[in-house]
Amino acid sequence: MPSPVAEIPAAAADIAAAHYAAKLAFETDCSDVHAAFASGKVDFVLLDARSPTLFAQSHLPGALNLPHGKMTAHRMSAWPTDTLFVVYCAGPHCNGADRAALRLSRLGLSVKLMIGGMTGWADEGFAFEEGVPTAA
């Protein structure tokens, strides 16, 4: 009798590769975002989808505060249409970044969710900023 892990067979390698490639098209992680800022190669706009109050208390360096409810076609027209947006919120227990990603994609914009959010950033030991003016 197989273990609970092996009870359901793993996907064929080509199917697994397609799955993970698709997943990475939707997500990035804290380490990759941090590395981009550390290298100066920031080819995306980092958006914090939390409230302005929470943003002022603490946020990722380089992030702009734009709660998902304020992501309108008019507001997003401030950026070129080919801009890649990376969104985050409090962490895995929060769906604000998912809502932001949905809203941006419905506006026809490119978006990735930064998995882990603030919680993941803290887990990686990366520094936060506080008190920066918001973009909203």
Automatic annotation (TrEMBL):
SUPFAM superfamilies: Rhodanese/Cell cycle control phosphatase
Domain Rhodanese: 40-130
Residues spanning the signal sequence: none
Record InterPro entries: GlpE_sulfurtransferase, Rhodanese-like_dom, Rhodanese-like_dom_sf, Thiosulphate_STrfase_CS
Coiled-coil intervals, chain numbering: none
PROSITE patterns, per database record: RHODANESE_1 (PS00380), RHODANESE_3 (PS50206)
Record's protein name: Rhodanese-like domain-containing protein
Taxonomy of the source species: Bacteria, Pseudomonadati, Pseudomonadota, Alphaproteobacteria, Hyphomicrobiales
